[in-house]
Amino acid sequence: MRQGRLVGLLLCGTLALAGCTRGTDADVERAMDAVNVIDESNLGDIMLTVADPEEAVAYFSRSLREHPGRIDLERGLAKSLVRARRPEEAVKVWKRVMEHKEVTDEDRVDYADALIRVGDWERAEATLNSVPPTYETYKRYRLEAMVADSNRDWKRADAFYETAAGLTTKPAAVLNNWGYSKLTRGDHAEAERLFLEAVKEDPSVFTAKNNLVLARAAQRKYTLPPIPMTQVERAQLLHTMALAAIKQGDVNTGRTLLEEAIETHPQHFEAAVRALRALESNASL
């Protein structure tokens, strides 16, 4: 009798232990699922920031084949395609995101960005108009400014550029865009001011330096501004200024600037040499 009770107790203990084991396994599986989600999310973030764009495209494409219809993966693929300079493909993926029930205003802004990259200004404007005015971000207003520029609505463009610049701690890119807008309107002095401001915000942006030289040359200011530049950049900026001078009819100034660019460059400056030869060839005709 005592033996029977002992066997019963042992069975109960075994069953209880089995129950505990099942509970532990389930907890471990849930914990592992959570870790996998975190790892996947971290990997996705890495792919969208520091990874090679084409590698990121391959990663999100592969993930979508394994998990079709997931909006986070569709979103990641679309952003990666933009980074890889494949905007036409990105637009197609963003369209799928737009049809998803979990689409966000940020998605709509990113879709508008892709549309602008392929030159579909009309749909980009319509997409931005679908975003409520309460959604205020740097990217939204930068795109709004670009759309206003395309419509030659200068007043709205200036307002949007100003708002965008105030919504970021790194305004160099939007200041450069704003300056280029002013340059195309013929407001060269204001363009020069904005380009100079962009360079001060981020001295590594060569495009802003080049645009600054163009704005100065348009005012026949054929000297380089006092901004940080490498020797190679100095030569390139002199080359830009020379071509602008020649285009405006200041041929002798252009020739002098080309010679200075060739002398300044630490290596053989083929583009400047070619331009100087072409200039001398035309002069001898």
From TrEMBL:
PROSITE patterns: PROKAR_LIPOPROTEIN, TPR. TPR repeats lie at residues 172-205. The keyword Signal applies. InterPro entries: TPR-like_helical_dom_sf (IPR011990), TPR_rpt (IPR019734). Residues 1-18 form the signal peptide. Keywords: Signal, TPR repeat. Pfam families: TPR_16. This is Pentatricopeptide repeat domain-containing protein (PPR motif). It comes from Meinhardsimonia xiamenensis.
